[in-house]
C-alpha cells in the first residue's frame, strides 16, 4: 500500500468517526418498550361466619402474580353499611380495582361498586348477586338445598336491640367447610365473624353487576347457598364466565384457592 492510499484510508476513518460524533446516541438505540398499565388492585371481601384469613391462599396466589391485594374487614352489619366501608377502601386506591366478594360479601361488593369508575370487574365467589329489593335470606330459600338454618346457634342479643348469628362450632366443619382439613375447619369455627340477623333481611339497592362485568365461581357441594341459586344469579348477571368447582364447599376460596385465584386473574386481565 502506498503512502497516498494510506493517507486516503486514514482520512475516511476520521470522517466516519466525526460523523458518528455528530449523530445523537439515541438514533442507534432500540425503541423503548411501551409502559405497561398498572395491574388492578384486588379487594377481597369476606362473608358471614368467616374473616379475612379465609382468603390467605388466594392472597398468596395473587401476590405471586404481582397483583396488589387488600383483604378488607367486612363489618357484617348490613349491605348498605358494609358497602360504604368497602367503598371507602375503593376510593383510597389509585388506579383500577377488581372487587371480589364471598357469600354475603357478594351483596356488599355489588353495592360498593355503584358509581365507582375505577371498579373494572366484580368476582362473586360462592356469593350472592342480588337484584334490587332482594335479600340474602330470600335468595337462599329460592331454591332447595341450603342446610344452614338448623346449624345456627341461638342468636346473641346486642345492645342496640339487634341480634348476631353464628354457626354452632361443632356443626361448622360439615356445614361450612366440608372439604377443608378438619383441624383448620375447627379453627375457622372458633374464629368465625358473626353477622347481624338484620343484614340477611336487608333489601339490596340497585346492583352494580348490571353495568360492571362479572365472574362467578362456586362449588357444587355448597350447603349454605344452593348451587342452583348461584347458577341462577350468574345467568341473570350475564356473567363473562362461570366456574363450578367439583366437590368444593361454601369456602371454595379456602379449599381450592388456585381455582379461585385463576378466575380473579382472568377478570383482572379482561
UniProtKB/TrEMBL annotation:
Domain annotation AB hydrolase-1: ranges: 42-261
UniProt protein name: Alpha/beta hydrolase family protein
Keywords for the protein's UniProt record, in alphabetical order: Hydrolase, Signal
Highest taxon listed in the record's lineage: Bacteria
Organism: Variovorax paradoxus
Signal peptide: 1-29
Single GO term (MF): hydrolase activity
Matches recorded under SUPFAM superfamilies: alpha/beta-Hydrolases
Source species taxonomy: Bacteria, Pseudomonadati, Pseudomonadota, Betaproteobacteria, Burkholderiales
